[in-house]
Amino acid sequence: MSVYQFNANTLTGEDVSLEAYKGKVLLIVNTASKCGLTPQYEGLETLYKELNGEGVEILGFPCNQFGKQEPGSSEDIASFCLKNYGVSFPMFEKIDVNGPTTHPLYQYLKSNAKGLLGSEKIKWNFTKFLINKEGEVVARYAPTTPPEKIKADIQKLL
């Protein structure tokens, strides 16, 4: 299996197969607009601008499961990300990353890169998953890991 077997809806409602990103290095992140870690959008955008031309995509998945820190609609999220952080990387519709309604992509990510003490549960906003060009999960990063600390790992996969 790989991430290419999953689909997700963009913030504009377009159904996208992740196969569209085949052959690229991916950083998949669950995001939130009203979180103490929200300024990581800036670091994610910087990484995207620096590495997108080399074959890197950052995919943002808003989630409202942690302190209800992503309460807005898709339009609200898109507007916030663009206005405050100039986000130009692909953003998807709000999803659940834990519990019985976990998005299938996140079920896959969590089972292939466990967190602290072997837990599959996502602990908070801005948990990051690094995916190689074959669509396989190679690393999971804690919410507090700043995007710039992941750059070297991304470059090794290029």
Question: How do the strands and helices of this protein lay out in sequence?
Answer:
Blueprint: E1 7-9, E2 15-17, E3 25-31, H1 40-51, E4 56-62, H2 74-85, H3 104-112, E5 128-131, E6 137-141, H4 151-157
Parallel strand pairs: 3-4
Antiparallel strand pairs: 1-2, 3-5, 5-6
Report on this structure.
GO terms for molecular function: peroxidase activity. This is Glutathione peroxidase. Residues 1-158 form the Thioredoxin domain. Belongs to the glutathione peroxidase family. InterPro entries: Glutathione_peroxidase, GPX_AS, GPX_CS, Thioredoxin-like_sf, Thioredoxin_domain. With 158 residues, the chain is α+β, with helices and mostly antiparallel strands. The protein has one domain (3-157): Glutaredoxin (3-Layer(aba) Sandwich), CATH 3.40.30. Helix content is 25%, strand content 18%. The chain has helices at residues 40-51, 74-85, 104-112, 151-157; strands spanning 7-9, 15-17, 25-31, 56-62, 128-131, 137-141. The strands form two sheets. It has a four-stranded mixed beta sheet, covered by helices on one side. A hairpin with a 5-residue loop joins strand 1 (7-9) and strand 2 (15-17).
